[in-house]
């Protein structure tokens, strides 16, 4: 298939944690007419590594729209859920993680982390409510 060697090179760059070079190659492939859906996921991962969770979510959404049954679907959902956790959107993250099979690597670790965050937020809200009550706030 066209672009196979370049796609393999993107894999290699990402495996080597060279996300800047990988992203440059991804953009070059797009300009050359490559429309393979995994390029969206690869670019999303480059955005994730730059801590641009919103851009990562945008690209994962495009990837899932373009290839809803792709073999990397669960990887995309898992990555999106981590971005949502990073952005403080834990309930949405949990809903996405629930779509990932329990056997998926690190899913349970992320679910445990998510439950911990939600528990802390609940306790913090209770303390804040108590302080507000002491101040005479309704």
What does this entry show, briefly?
The chain has 138 residues and is mostly helical.
What does this structure look like?
The protein has 138 residues and is an all-alpha fold. Helix content is 73%, strand content 0%. Helix 2 (19-31) runs antiparallel to helix 3, helix 3 packs antiparallel against helix 4 and helix 4 runs antiparallel to helix 5 (73-86). The radius of gyration is 19 Å and the shape is elongated. The protein starts with a helix and ends with a helix. The model has no long low-confidence stretch (mean pLDDT 92).
What's the helix and strand layout?
Blueprint: H1 4-15, H2 19-31, H3 38-49, H4 53-66, H5 73-86, H6 90-97, H7 107-134
Helix pairs in contact: 1-2, 2-3, 3-4, 4-5, 5-6, 6-7
Report how far apart the termini are.
Answer: 66 Å
Kindly state the mean pLDDT as a whole number? 92
- Categorize the overall geometry: elongated
List the total number of helices.
Answer: 7
Order of helices and strands: HHHHHHH
Are there runs of 5+ residues with pLDDT below 50, and where?
none
What level of helicity do the residues show? over 70%
Q: Strand-residue fraction? A: under 5%
Rg over C-alpha atoms, rounded to the nearest angstrom: 19 Å
User: How many β-strands, per DSSP?
Assistant: 0
Largest pleated sheet: none
Structural category: mainly alpha
């Amino acid at each position: 298939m066209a672009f196979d060697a370049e796609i393999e090179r993107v894999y290699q760059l990402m495996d080597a944690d060279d996300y800047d070079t990988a992203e440059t190659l991804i953009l070059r492939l797009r300009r050359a007419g490559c429309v393979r859906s995994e390029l969206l996921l690869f670019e999303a991962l480059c955005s994730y590594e730059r801590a641009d969770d919103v851009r990562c979510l945008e690209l994962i959404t495009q990837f899932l729209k373009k290839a809803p049954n792709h073999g990397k679907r669960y990887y995309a959902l898992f990555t999106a859920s981590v971005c949502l956790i990073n952005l403080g959107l834990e309930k949405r993250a949990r809903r996405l993680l629930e779509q990932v099979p329990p056997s998926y690597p690190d899913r349970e670790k992320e679910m445990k982390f998510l439950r911990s965050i939600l528990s802390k937020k609940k306790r913090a809200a209770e303390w804040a409510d108590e302080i507000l009550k002491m101040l005479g706030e309704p």
